[in-house]
Amino acid sequence: MAIGVWISLFAYFAIMIGIGVYAMRKASATAEDYMLGGRGLSPKVAALSAGASDMSGWLLLGLPGALFVTGLADAWIGIGLFVGAFINWVIVAPRLREQTVHYGNALTIPAFLANRFPTKALPLRTVSAIVIVVFFAVYTASGLVAGGKLFESAFSGIFNFGGLSDYGVGIVITLGVVLAYTVVGGFLAVSMTDFVQGCIMMLALVLMPAVVLFGEGGGGFGQASETLNSVDPTLLSWTEGLTLVGWLSAVAWGLGYFGQPHIIVRFMAIRTVHEVSVARNIGMSWMAISLIGAISLGVFGRAYAIRNGMDVADPETIFIILADLLFHPLITGFLYAALLAAVMSTISSQLLVASSSLTEDFYRLFLRKEASDKECVNIGRACVVAVGLVAALIASDPNSQVLALVSNAWAGFGAAFGPLIILGLTWSRTNGAGALAGLIVGAVTVMAWIALGWNGSFMGGPGVYEIIPGFIAAFIAIVVVTLATSDAGEYQHIER
């Protein structure tokens, strides 16, 4: 492996760890500082942090890999995500920023739900924290799988540490660097590194498709389209071969945004409600550019591979293969860093949210109610490490698919929290009984749907993405149970 690649990677690792050290003093002051950065994120940092923590390794591996195989039909996933993200910024962001302060200055989503629905505070806080920790273990594992695939594909045969495969070494290095800056720097370090990582990811997703199309061996749009049409005309069709169920399953990814704790927690940390609109404009612009780049990479990467006789065994590694093939080692190292940025930005956010729930919603709630801020910060750091190790164990199977792991966790969060967050913020009549019913019904429906295999095949036809039945069932459960019950002492008024 060329020395230029290592220079770029080591520079990236050093910057990430340096940001963690820089943020350490601020992060260690109080629990609010460690878990929410003191609610002082600027619009640009909040926007790119939300985007980078959202667009994990699936943006550079999973989504291009899916489009590499099926063509533009899977681009509906990106469209659904863009629409969902925009609605999330408009409906959820300003209300959540305001109401988490109004209801007891909640530092976590479970704490906000408990404060919003005090008659069911304990079960809501407990169940939501369990859902967060369980699904984040799976979600974090998807990022580690992406890191493992990078090292397995790019550095094959280089590492030989204690019998660990290249894939295993990739998991260890990825997790190790993330833990280094997350443990010491907390939310502020995670958000600042997300900003840098978001910039790197966007640049990579502009550079890579441009070189694939117009560099040597690319041939431009015309030749790329001609190549794809000669192999399979449906590759450039948005609708051909796409069933209604398949289309709904693709665009339904957008429903997941309303319930992703690692994304919506950024809304809680923006400096003021008035800066939400600025952050939204920055975040949506970043997302549009990044999604277009990922879609172009998958589709036109397939054309490049066909034209140049490339054998791509794992479509999810097309970004890695092209980075190594088309660029100078220094640029290749930068592109590898972009992939690691996508992976690490999400892993760090998820680890921090999971550890915050373990600290605030388990440790402080059940074990040490009188725990000091300093003690909670230290417990939070220990929980970051613990959740990371569990995720590494889940990710240890090298045959794991990034997009599959992400889709399961995304659906779990979207169905469990999405309807509850929307109704809890906008429908003042929502009560604790309804909230608890929706939380449980959403999570259970998703897990049952996956267990029964109905996301792969449903009633003899194509599978239905589990977020659809989960989201609908949770929404209905909240409304029906709320209308059928009355919680004495429940907050009935929400300040806008």
TrEMBL record:
Domain of life: Bacteria
Transmembrane helix listed as a keyword: yes
Record bears the keyword Ligase: no
Transmembrane region(s): 6-24, 75-93, 126-147, 167-188, 195-215, 235-258, 278-300, 376-396, 402-423, 435-455, 467-486
PROSITE patterns: NA_SOLUT_SYMP_2, NA_SOLUT_SYMP_3
Cross-referenced Gene3D superfamilies: Sodium/glucose cotransporter
Record's catalysed reaction(s): L-proline(in) + Na(+)(in) = L-proline(out) + Na(+)(out)
Protein's organism: Marinobacter shengliensis
Family annotation (PANTHER family): SODIUM/PROLINE SYMPORTER-RELATED, SODIUM_PROLINE SYMPORTER
Membrane topology according to the record: Multi-pass membrane protein
Similarity field: Belongs to the sodium:solute symporter (SSF) (TC 2.A.21) family.
A Pfam family reported for this protein in Swiss-Prot or TrEMBL: SSF
Subcellular location field: Cell inner membrane; Cell membrane
Function summary: Catalyzes the sodium-dependent uptake of extracellular L-proline.
InterPro entries: Na/Glc_symporter_sf, Na/Pro_symporter, Na/solute_symporter, Na/solute_symporter_CS, Sodium:Solute_Symporter
Protein's name according to its UniProt entry: Sodium/proline symporter
Name of the gene: putP
Alphabetical keyword list: Amino-acid transport, Cell inner membrane, Cell membrane, Ion transport, Membrane, Sodium, Sodium transport, Symport, Transmembrane, Transmembrane helix, Transport
Lineage, top ranks: Bacteria, Pseudomonadati, Pseudomonadota, Gammaproteobacteria, Pseudomonadales
